Amino acid sequence: MTTMAARIRKEPPAGIGRALPAPGPDGQKGGFMGQIFIDGSWLDKDNAKISVFDHGLLYGDGIFEGIRAYNGRVFRLREHMTRLWSSARAIELALPYSPEEMERIILEALQRAGAPDNYVRVVITRGKGDLGLDRRKCKKPTVIVIAEMIELYSNSVYEEGIRLITSSLRRVPLDSLPPMVKSLNYLNNILARSEATRAGAQEAILLNHQGLVAECSGDNIFLVREGRCMTPPVSAGILPGITRGAVIEIARDQLKLPFAEADCTLYDLYSAEEVFLTGTGAEVIGVTEIDGRKIGSGRTGHWTREIQKLHRKMTRSTGVPFGEFAASRI
Ligand code: PMP
């Protein structure tokens, strides 16, 4: 093979498969102290920098994944790698590592971060180019892995649920950048989320160009209506969430709730008994108000609570172990 990916892959990622070196006196000897991986180097927050010519920064040309670890185990790591590789293929980005190498980098980042519960952000950009759009000028993708906890919803929000509004912005249509790609282009989502914030709500629903419900700015959406659980299909123009997949298994296989991936309208949401959101950061969160209308009883619903409980159990007891945490706890 003479592709760029093959050339780059000849060099194993630095630090991978080796024992972690002892910290140097300055805490940065050989760049081995940090928990942030950039193109083979381990760096701390202050030193983790990329070029201003990187097309990830200049054009949002790249992809990412957000991954959670609980109790020293990474939840659904293989599924995240599968989605990352699908995103890469969709935007014609040749990844310089194999999925197994990527997994080892992620596990090492978590081990270096040293916390049993954590969050990992994987970012792969087109790399350094010039100021033009031509991606052929970008000779090598930039690979970034950051292990650091993100800000999460408070416990009370899981009890009380959240408020949504419908955004004036539509989800990117299927015949543009496919919404299934977890790309670095989040401006549409960010603008939708800021509409929610301005209206005193926590999340925004984006409809697709047919006026059907797609998803929220950073979460998938589910409803329970007349005892049936529903979520929009991927063909409605959504990101196929990893949490969405786990929650479908919980609702359909564990709780035996009648379940369908089906087109949903705002009417379906407004008249539902329960609405909830799923996402790696949000986990499973109840929705109590949409566009000023009370949903169901106005509290987190019965099935939402059941799904929350089983999702919590699933995330805390399964996954790929890292460090000593998993061994000592399970
Ligand atoms: N939809 C969008 C637009 C997202 O950004 C995300 C991730 N935050 C999700 C859905 C949920 O996906 P996952 O469960 O894989 O985190």
Task: Provide an overview of this structure.
The chain contains ten helices and 16 strands. The chain is an alpha+beta fold. The protein is globular, with a radius of gyration of 21 Å. The strands form two sheets. Strands 7, 8, 9, 10, 11, 12, 13, 14 and 15 form a nine-stranded mixed beta sheet that branches. Strands 2-1-6-5-3-4-16 form a seven-stranded antiparallel beta sheet. Helix content is 29%, strand content 24%. The N terminus is likely disordered. It has two domains: 140 residues, Aminotransferase class 4, branched-chain amino acid transferase, N-terminal domain (D-amino Acid Aminotransferase, Chain A, domain 1, 2-Layer Sandwich); 162 residues, D-amino Acid Aminotransferase, Chain A, domain 2 (Alpha-Beta Barrel). 4'-deoxy-4'-aminopyridoxal-5'-phosphate (PMP) binds next to helix 7 and strand 13.
Notable features of this structure?
330 residues; alpha+beta; D-amino Acid Aminotransferase, Chain A, domain 1; D-amino Acid Aminotransferase, Chain A, domain 2; 9-stranded mixed β-sheet; 16 strands; binds 4'-deoxy-4'-aminopyridoxal-5'-phosphate
In short:
With 330 residues, the protein is α+β, with helices and mostly antiparallel strands. It folds into 2 domains: 8-147, Aminotransferase class 4, branched-chain amino acid transferase, N-terminal domain (D-amino Acid Aminotransferase, Chain A, domain 1); 155-316, D-amino Acid Aminotransferase, subunit A, domain 2 (D-amino Acid Aminotransferase, Chain A, domain 2, Alpha-Beta Barrel), CATH 3.20.10.10.
